[in-house]
Design a protein that fits this description.
The protein has 105 residues and is mainly β. The chain is built from 1 helix and 7 strands; from the N terminus they run βββββββα.
Length: 105
């Protein structure tokens, strides 16, 4: 999982090859982002014998505490080519404000 920050949002990206969007669950509770999924193993053919198995199967869970408050009502998730992207907009207070400095005469 990679988490980056833009001016307005946090962006989480997770590679989940071989999964479909229906296989993934995303939850956000008290700034704890949790992504769960399950990758089912292909059924083995009776006349097929594996020499090597390196792909991972089964249930996975990844949770990460976000470094700032986000607006849970505006979180979006998209999935393309095995890459899950979750956009977590910051709350107005987490975005901060710029205070201009005025010159006195």
């Amino acid at each position: 999982m990679d988490i980056s920050e833009t001016k307005d949002s946090l962006v989480a990206k997770v590679e989940v090859p071989g999964l479909e969007p229906k296989d993934i669950q995303i939850s956000l509770q008290e700034n704890l982002l949790t992504i769960k999924g399950e990758k089912s193993q292909e059924k083995e053919e009776k006349d097929e014998h594996y020499h090597r198995v390196e792909r991972a199967y089964g249930v996975f869970t990844r949770s990460v505490r976000l470094p700032m408050a986000v607006d849970a009502s505006k979180v979006t998730a998209s999935f393309k080519n095995g890459l899950l992207t979750v956009i977590l907009p910051k709350t107005p207070s987490a975005r901060g404000t710029t205070i201009p400095v005025k010159a006195e005469h």
